[in-house]
């Protein structure tokens, strides 16, 4: 055995290899946590903005649907109660009353819509929430103008979204 070298098999990792593996794993783990935190933060911000956009769209949709059919409109606009009425082709009388209620210590509004069919309430539903009282309004001068301008602003978790709708009441022309 003089000329032969004895080979020794390595049975584990060296300390240097183990330290490198721990360092690489730590970098990957920290990077994953940072990425996860960023994704959750962006997701929450997008959710909040989407909620504000939906509130503005719901208000615009329902008021537009009712005003387009209107044969009469009573009320000065937000925050006063607004009453919209019309008679269907089959003689059924419909009336919608919109009213606002303060929420969150009166800083924001909640808008309700109550439908009456032949003077019988069909129930009250929430049309929009988180509406900004300073920026949510409608302007109409009755006989002087045939267009209602509706400005709606919703604020949800710091995200503010506004939209302006111009609605032409068909039967009032």
Which terms summarize this structure?
alpha+beta; 173 residues; 3-stranded antiparallel β-sheet; 5-stranded antiparallel β-sheet
Tell me what you see in this structure:
With 173 residues, the chain is an alpha+beta fold. It has one domain (42-167). It is built from one helix and eight strands; from the N terminus they run αββββββββ. It has one helix at residues 15-69, and strands at residues 72-74, 82-87, 93-103, 108-117, 120-131, 137-139, 148-156, 159-167. It has a five-stranded antiparallel beta sheet, with helices on one face. It has a three-stranded antiparallel beta sheet with strand order 6-7-8. The longest helix is centred in the N-terminal third of the chain and has 55 residues, at 15-69. It is rod-shaped, with a radius of gyration of 31 Å. The model has no long low-confidence stretch (mean pLDDT 86).
